[in-house]
Amino acid sequence: MQTAALVLGIVSLVIAVGGGAAGMGWIGSICGILAIIFGALGMKAGGPQRKTAKTGLILGIVALCWGLIVTVACLACIGAGAGIGAGLGLFD
Q1: How far is CA 64 from CA 30, 39, 43, 53, 91, in A?
Q2: What does the radius of gyration of the chain's CA atoms come to, in whole angstroms?
Q3: What's the pLDDT tens digit per position in 1-40?
Q4: What is the Cα–Cα distance from 65 to 33, expressed in whole angstroms?
Q5: Are 54 and 43 in contact, with CB atoms under 8 Å apart?
Q6: How far, in Å, CA of 75 to CA of 60, rounded?
Q7: DSSP letter string over 27-57?
Q8: Which is more confident, 77 or 25?
Q9: What's the confidence (pLDDT) of residue 23?
Q10: Quick one: which of 10, 26, 28, 80 has the most CB atoms within 10 Å?
Q11: Cα 18 to chain center, whole Å?
Q12: Cβ-Cβ contacts under 8 Å for 32 (sequence gap 6 or more)
């Protein structure tokens, strides 16, 4: 569980930051949710890899927040562009 949390945390952060510009920040958010779940389960289990689980948990939280912010920003940009296009009569 601990290693899965760390790997998912790293992958989610890379996808949320890198893929956010391409409108794929939501995929990073999904991986971030999984990293949070696995990190919480790994911390609960304890053991020598507790720090690994904590790192995955933190990376998952950061990626989830970043992915949501980028996704909302992309949707707002698309909505603004559609509003401008409608105002100019492009969709008539």
Answers
A1: 7, 13, 19, 16, 35
A2: 17
A3: 889 999 999 998 888 887 766 667 778 888 899 999 999 9
A4: 10
A5: yes
A6: 22
A7: HHHHHHHHHHHHHHHHHHH-STTHHHHHHHH
A8: 77
A9: 65
A10: 28
A11: 11
A12: 8, 9, 12, 13, 16, 59, 60, 61, 62, 63, 64, 67
